[in-house]
Design a protein that fits this description.
Blueprint lengths: L6 E7 L2 E6 L3 H4 L4 H13 L4 H14 L3 E3 L11 E7 L3 E7 L4 H4 L2 E6 L4 E12 L2 E9 L12 E11 L4 E7 L26 H4 L3 E4 L8 H12 L5 E13 L4 E3 L5 E4 L2 H16 L6 E6 L16 H10 L2 H9 L2 E5 L2 E2 L22 E3 L10 H14 L4 E3 L11 H9 L2 E6 L1 E3 L6 E4 L2 H13 L1
Parallel strand pairs: 3-4, 6-15, 6-16, 16-20, 17-21, 18-19
Antiparallel strand pairs: 1-2, 4-5, 5-15, 7-8, 7-12, 8-11, 9-10, 9-12, 13-14, 14-22, 18-20, 21-22
Helix pairs in contact: 2-7, 7-12, 8-9, 10-12
Length: 457
Amino acid sequence: MKQSAEFVTLMQQNRYHIVQFHTPEFIMSSTSPHNLNRGLLDFIDASPTPFHAVANMKAALEAAGYKPLNEKNSWGTLSTGSYYVTRNDSSIIAFNLPDINLAEAGFQMVGAHTDSPCLKVKPQPGTVKNSFWQLGVEVYGGALLNPWFDRDLSMAGRVSFADADGQLSHALVNFKKPVAAIPSLAIHLDRDVNQNRSINPQLHLPPIVLQTEEGDKPDFRALLEQQLRSEQGELTVGKVLDYEICFYDTQPSALVGINEDFISAARLDNLLSCYIGLQALLAGSKNKANLLVCTDHEEVGSVSTSGAQGTFLPAVLQRLAQDNESYQRIIQHSLLISADNAHGIHPNYADRHDEQHGPILNKGPVIKSNANQRYATNSQSSARFRQLCELADVPVQDFVVRTDMGCGSTIGPLTASNLGVHTLDIGVPTFAMHSIRELAGSQDTSHLYNALKQFFN
């Protein structure tokens, strides 16, 4: 599938250069099931990092008339309209401000996260072994490591550099083409690999980037400088000072199956929820106080300035409320739907599920519950969502982890405890969560979209 996103440099503000794309037709086109899925695939392929995902969402919001806000500036009393604000350029909040009393109405909020497990390049990464230049990596989040082997990998992320005037600047880069690989060890050298394969992340994961000649000393920062000059010809790039770069699989997202029943892609957890939440927000009523929040660092606990356990969302809501009494009332009148993928029942491993709570792909979004508050759902919030799904004619499923197994978590409990807002956890069922390539149902995107659109209307 040819990627339709064309990246260009659109703005230069405060020495920060954001690489964005001309809003492609899929962002604003008809949200028929086919267009919704094609739009999702293009969005994922155009968003190899949280920085790129947020830049792409910004472009779509601006095309729809949303106005940017800056946390460094005074907001005063905002007029009615639609706005967005970012933090760290990896988290974003977009919202409508209608002519209503927010303290009486509250917000309809949908939350998701922009990050996914990956391999991040270390600060001093380059090593040469047996003539091969490799880059040291850290494992970000709870990644399934085996699928990273024997893939065509590229790199993308954010680079900080000094320009010609010595001023600090930042820009996004995306190599796009395959630039690295992590080859498996041949079975002839590890006869027990199919019975017992353990991976040492320090020893076995550094990708091979190039083969060197004797005496060569490749410089990763020089490579980034070259890439910056290639991508952003208008910028004067001086010395690269630092970076946040990760590897990603270059295989394009796809609809798979005889009847295209499935979506196969990287980062479905949780760019699927970000994209569908964005589309639902854009289709939602402008007479409602609707809000979409997509935060970074969920895969590592959300403890950061731009994570769900940070101050981003409460700070924005406090500024909109303008006084503590109104803020507390807004919170109590609001509902947050935490949208994050759920574990679909795998036909080859059905015993890993509670047989009464095994979600099926393409059978609708899943209400996630946990008695130990690993999910924020309670009977009140789940009843509200079931009612929404009935009104939207959307099927709904339930997920509860086996009682003898541990349960993951989401931004739901963190946001609920941080704000005190009524919250529930939902998501579409998925296979191979946290793999380099995940699988979801192609009908579930429409199911989730229709449910969230009903919520926003």
